[in-house]
Amino acid sequence: MKRKLILAPSILSADFTRLGEEMKLASSSGAGMVHIDIMDGVFVPHTIGSTDWVKEAKQSVPSLFRDVHLMVEHPQETALRYAASGADNVTFHLEACSDEKEIWSTMLAIEKAGSRASLSLKPMTPPEAMLPYLSSAYLILVMSVEPGKGGQSFMMDSLKKIAFLRKKIDLLPAEKRPLIEVDGGINPDTAKLCAEAGADVLVAGSYLFGHPGMRERAQKILEAGR
Fold first, then answer.
1. Residue 67: what pLDDT?
2. Which of 37, 67, 88, 200 is catalytic?
């Protein structure tokens, strides 16, 4: 069943020299969130990101939900910095934690800091690994590319993972159901497939930024859920 989609443009593909303008454009194009990727050069090969990005988003478009995605090892300390900077949601990777205790303590710390806490899993991690946390996370981020760089092609196996999580989430009480977010290789064609599999939020970067007509491109993705 198709769902009403939320679009989350990834500023990783934006022009950093005019970031505020880029986020305003994304918001006026129909975005419901702005997706802010943070990398430490350890969990993924590259290092990028700043709490200033969150502050800029809060200042430029206060109404736009600030969705931070941490790709960092042992994320609790970093997560607290981004929660304090104004993130509405902080997502971290299961694979970045040494054990379940670290996962739970990081989620609790994020929530105590006033942000929502969410979890992500890499393409090769089975969706079953997420089951203990489904009713506690704000959203589950399914990576449909290897995390760490933009412009990659969508991994079709991700659709099975989305569908599996959709079935499990729909068994939960309504107030306990996390959103399913998908990040990587999103365009109108893959957006339609993700929507049919049960996704709620789609992260798009290189398809949206750096082209004329962002509004038209954004609407094509959103129409995939109708």
1. 98
2. 37
